[in-house]
Protein 1
Amino acid sequence: MTEQLQADIKPGRLSNAEIEANFSDMHPPLERPEALIEADRCYFCFDAPCTTACPTGIDIPGFIQKIRSNNVKGSAYTILSENIMGGMCSRVCPTEVLCEEVCVRNTLEDQPVRIGLLQRYATDAVFQSELQLFQRRQDTGKRVAVVGGGPASLSCAHRLASLGHQVTVLNAAEKPGGLNEYGIAAYKTVNNFAQAEVDYILDIGGIEIRNGKSLGTDFSLADLRSKYDAVFLGFGMGGVNELGLDNDQVEGVVDAVEYIAALRQADSKAELPVGRKVLVIGGGMTAIDIAVQSKRLGAEEVTIAYRRGQEQMGASQMEQDFARTSGVVIHHWLAPDLLLLSGDRVSGVQFEYTRLDGDGTLKGSGERCELDADIVFKAIGQNVLWDAMGDTADSLELEHGRIAVDDNRKTSLPDVWAGGDCINGGEDLTVCAVQDGKLAALDIDRFLRQQSGRPDGSTGHAGFCRHQILFEQSPVLCHN
Ligand SMILES: Cc1cc2nc3c(=O)[nH]c(=O)nc-3n(C[C@H](O)[C@H](O)[C@H](O)COP(=O)(O)OP(=O)(O)OC[C@H]3O[C@@H](n4cnc5c(N)ncnc54)[C@H](O)[C@@H]3O)c2cc1C
Ligand code: SF4
């Protein structure tokens, strides 16, 4: 039986061509005529609820208007000056619960403006033309250490560098990009876009990146505080929550994030072993992503089991629909109770049905069911790996196991800021991490200028764009 089960986890369930088709661009980019038609649908609302809903506050009607008037690179500048990862966010943002949800055209009779695709249209033009829109201000002589190489850290590093500071990024992984490189579903970011975006960010200059360097192993927070003028922490959440069952560590129970990282780094996806019957436990974006990607690798039966109802799932309705249309079955109100074994491998999970009692507490109903599986993915959330970070946690104020910060993303230490998934209160989205990094950088800049007795220079983006005058005076040059 064990051999049979092991044989049921194998690579090459589909041909290379099938896998390539399954992992092609999920939302192909708009062609120019489509983009112009879509831009024309915008009402250019005075109060622009879409901008308010964007965590990075991009002037959405502003960038759409520039697409309409053929100033595509000016449009990209409007986007990237608020969100330097506007290219990645146009691919991965759950726009259906952010800007597009509140778009005034989002009515029963109409559809929201496809803001995400328009954002991609504008930012792709800049990447394709290899046009660097940003330049550094004069060197301030101040040095900032940035821990982590994900969206929060890279956004912080870019803003700091543009403001003239020298930035050293210390990143544990072999490649920069964080979950953009290792976590986002492969069909959302094709053609190595994550690395192209990192290259664009680093191209501004003033950022030294050191990969394979871990806080807690290679250096401590105290080391950084003594060597640099300020520190930003953006180390994300490296740990995955356990199921909390007696035999969690049994073979065949796999961390979904780890598997997705392997999938993202694989030279050939056809070589990844995939189960015939895949069971995913969780209800967020990671659960949807591992389920859909397993299906697209050739798994026959893929089931998500979530302990609460459809409305409580962390994954948006659109993501849930996407999973269903990809052939994934979603069961609600099931809490894992016991891992079923065949030999020393998992062969399924026994669940208890759940319900909410009068005061909203989740309760087991006493009824049980079993679902077969030859691989079980844990996707029930992540946590900060404090144990791997030496005494970092001792010197910082924490809330709910994450770093406590103020509105400017400053921690309880006067010279340390933090952002992204490792801080408390965020939404664990790429776009929120980018905003955290940006806000922290602006506050670090104020701090450093005050320290050196210089006037506050953090005045937004004036003097920030190489091509601003070009855009204003010679829009012809900025045509696509
Ligand atoms: C599977 C998955 C799919 C997702 N899909 C989406 C999506 O489609 N859309 C969306 O908006 N969001 C998505 N998210 C969430 C999004 O990826 C995160 O919110 C975002 O990446 C957080 O950015 P960050 O910079 O805080 O952390 P991360 O991206 O996790 O980056 C952390 C960085 O810190 C480094 N690091 C870790 N420990 C140390 C250390 N001790 N010392 C030095 N460096 C360290 C890591 O190597 C990494 O480079 C997804 C998350 C997961 C797990
Ligand atoms: S809410 Fe919709 S129509 Fe109004 S400005 Fe934003 S994208 Fe345009």
Note: Residues 262 and 441 are 32 Å apart (CA to CA).
Protein 2
Amino acid sequence: MAEKFQATVIGGGPGGYVCAIRLSQLGLKTACIESRGALGGTCLNIGCIPSKNLLNFSENFLKVKNFSKIGIEVGDVKLNLQKMMQNKDKAVTVLTKGVEFLLKKNKVTYFKGVGKFKSTSEISIIDKEKKETVIETEKVIICTGSEPVSLPGIDFDEEQIISSTGALSLKKVPKKMIIIGGGYIGLEMGSVWSRLGAEVHVIEFLDHITPGMDKEISSEFMKILKKQGITFHLETKVDLINKNSKGVKIDTTNKNGKKIKFESDIVLISVGRKPYTKNLNIEKVGVKLDKKKRIIVNKNFQTNIQNIFAIGDVIEGPMLAHKAEEEGIAVAELISGQSGHVNYDVIPGVIYTSPEVASVGKTEEQLKSLGLKYKIGKFPFMANSRAKAIDESEGFVKILADEKTDKVLGAHLIGPHAGELIAEMALAMEFGASAEDIARTCHAHPTFSEAVKEAALSVDKRQIHS
Ligand SMILES: Cc1cc2nc3c(=O)[nH]c(=O)nc-3n(C[C@H](O)[C@H](O)[C@H](O)COP(=O)(O)OP(=O)(O)OC[C@H]3O[C@@H](n4cnc5c(N)ncnc54)[C@H](O)[C@@H]3O)c2cc1C
């Protein structure tokens, strides 16, 4: 007889495993199915965690190389890429095992295999040995995530034409790397390989990088990356990619119609991700998708089939691990009769380059297009004592507040530890804070966070240190 569950989560990424834990905490007998052989999804295995590991250690490599400038003589600094990759793999394994422990601790039954609908309430799980287990379930939560998109007619070989997955496991530093797409994943990976010695070029179709980001931050970001040695080719369209044993040739056309040819050892295609619903058999149960192949859900994350729900990268919204986690918790609470909720106006986004870039809420461009009147407060890290003391003073904090009520509508940062500083702004926005609330909060000295306070003061032109 098939084992019976009250809830079955398909996919063990940050959306899925968090959802499964919360369902179990709320008293539902819960199963979590994961096909990868390791929990944590894209994020832990081939996304957030390995990329942040490489970003951190490539930054350390560069810092140590430049130590003599601050009076620390370390001699000849050499890169052992194999060891760096082993260290990254170890970090991933420790964390994925940690998630397995958390499922066990929370009494979630973990199935290793591909989950597939047999009917709306029966799921077949095929394991590595092709053995099938069928379970019965009252509710199903689809959390099968996303996969990288390539260009039409171009397949990833993960050696010369690579996706972010290949970029996390290169066996040697390429002499030259071309990145197609100036989004956050491409720029993070570009930073890693540029620091390790590759000549990095970014080809972007638009006239700016990081689409959707506040334009002022985005142009400052590009200036800083250029100074770090990355070359940008904006308003340039890729026409053709050809590879041979020597490398990859890329034919492009720029905005003036000029044909430009590029050659490179490796090309990283980083033009976005698409929802992943292969193998699920959702057609059989009739779950509806939109034009972008995302699963359509209502505000309770319920699909058109009453007992089937979906969250994370597989539905609409920013493809971010913390967004998937929030949805995982909200859907578990909604299924259990509580009032789960995600505030989509306050989902921070961070780019973990050096300096980091972080934002939450509306950009200036969005406020303009909504016709909202706003005030701007800005403060440069150049005038922040902590940043100056440690010579990390690039960038600034920008706060956008409602012209009349002073309520914070958005915050955009580029600078040291911006990814940590943004949490204060997200919290402030969750509490409906005004810029004055932040300005009147005592911030420790000397900290980077004083730049946030000063930007809040600057909303009403009363900053002290600039
Ligand atoms: C290089 C890179 C860097 C990133 N960095 C960040 C970052 O710094 N911060 C951030 O917030 N986000 C980052 N992301 C995005 C983040 O990884 C995703 O938004 C997040 O993992 C989505 O979570 P999810 O649970 O929806 O899906 P996923 O993490 O994709 O998990 C889905 C899981 O479902 C499994 N699965 C699929 N089909 C089946 C099936 N039929 N049966 C069983 N299992 C199945 C898959 O194997 C997968 O493990 C990054 C992504 C990449 C690629």
Note: The radius of gyration is 24 Å.
